[in-house]
Amino acid sequence: MSNQVNFSGYKPVSFSATVITELMIPSYSNFGGKIHGGILLSLMDKVAYVCAAKHAGNYCVTASIDTVDFLEPVEVGDLVSLMASVNYVGKTSLVVGIKVVSENIRTNSIYHTNTSYFTMVARDENNQPVQVPGLILEDRTQVRRFIEARRRKQLKHNYREESDRVVMPDDENLCRQMLEGERCTIAN
């Protein structure tokens, strides 16, 4: 009996790992001279698509984006690099982890500006969900990312279930009690 593993129908993380680097130009900036968050989100969506489509071998659509926290501002003239890799695969979905760094080429300063996770769904030529290849985890970092992505998926499911149970009370006095200490007032 052989101990060899059959990797047919699987692709390594490295197969679809993608880096996109773009110069931040003045038309990308807001009134404060910083790059619009929407520009960065658009670039993140683009690199997530490229990474997911390479792994899936199919067109992919963005199903959800886990939290996006802007940790550092991005300046006009910076080079922004977006590094993406498939962290998790389900049957038809993939979770793409994205790390964004900004580099000031005058000072050689590099800042980690964002990390986010995009869930992408593979689609066939009829726009129906299609199975994606399995994932070959090549090192401990990739194993950790897979396990963390699976845990985030479970937490997201639990959050959705809990959110479905949140209802506004019918009792107006109870509503007012719940809002005590908050920075709002009821207009009647």
Topology of this protein?
Layout: E1 10-12, H1 13-16, E2 18-23, H2 37-56, E3 59-65, E4 79-89, E5 93-104, E6 109-123, E7 134-136, H3 140-164, H4 172-179
Parallel strand pairs: 1-7
Antiparallel strand pairs: 2-4, 3-6, 4-5, 5-6
What can you see in these coordinates?
- Helix content is 30%, strand content 30%.
- With 188 residues, it is α+β, with helices and mostly antiparallel strands.
- It has a domain at 10-137: Hotdog Thioesterase (Thiol Ester Dehydrase, Chain A), CATH 3.10.129.10.
- The protein starts with 9 loop residues before the first strand and ends in a 9-residue tail after the last helix.
- The protein is globular, with a radius of gyration of 21 Å.
- The longest helix has 25 residues, at 140-164.
- The model has no long low-confidence stretch (mean pLDDT 94).
- It has four helices and seven strands; from the N terminus they run βαβαβββββαα.
